[in-house]
Amino acid sequence: SDKQKYFEFSTEKFSSSNLDEYFVKYEQKVKKAILERFKDSNHPIGSEISGGIDSSTVTSYIAKFFDQPLT
Q1: Alpha-carbon distance 54 to 58, whole Å?
Q2: For residue 1, what pLDDT is reported?
Q3: What is the dihedral of CA 49, 51, 52, 57, to 10 degrees?
Q4: What is the pLDDT of residues 48-65, one digit of tens each?
């Protein structure tokens, strides 16, 4: 069977005693992950928001980076 790897899971950790630096690094990683997952998408992008910070963050970045309505 032809198995295709969906993603690479990285266990790379980062830490910082500076909270601003930590959030900048976190934001960079989230943006990169979203762009990598959706960059070649030629289908409408949908999102379900649970009300948690992770789904809201992903949905807001998708809306920001891609010029199409979210469904």
Answers
A1: 6
A2: 62
A3: 50
A4: 888 888 888 888 888 888
> Which tens digit of pLDDT belongs to each residue from 1-51?
677 777 777 777 777 788 999 889 888 988 888 888 887 777 788 888 888
Q: Which amino acid is residue 49, in one-letter code?
A: I
DSSP 68: S
| Through-space distance between the first and last CA atoms of the chain, rounded to whole angstroms | 33
Taking the C-alpha atoms of residue 22 and residue 7, their distance in angstroms, rounded to an integer, is 24
Closest CA to 46 of 63, 64, 26, 29: 63
CA distance 15 to 22: 7
Dist CA 46 CA 63 (whole Å): 10
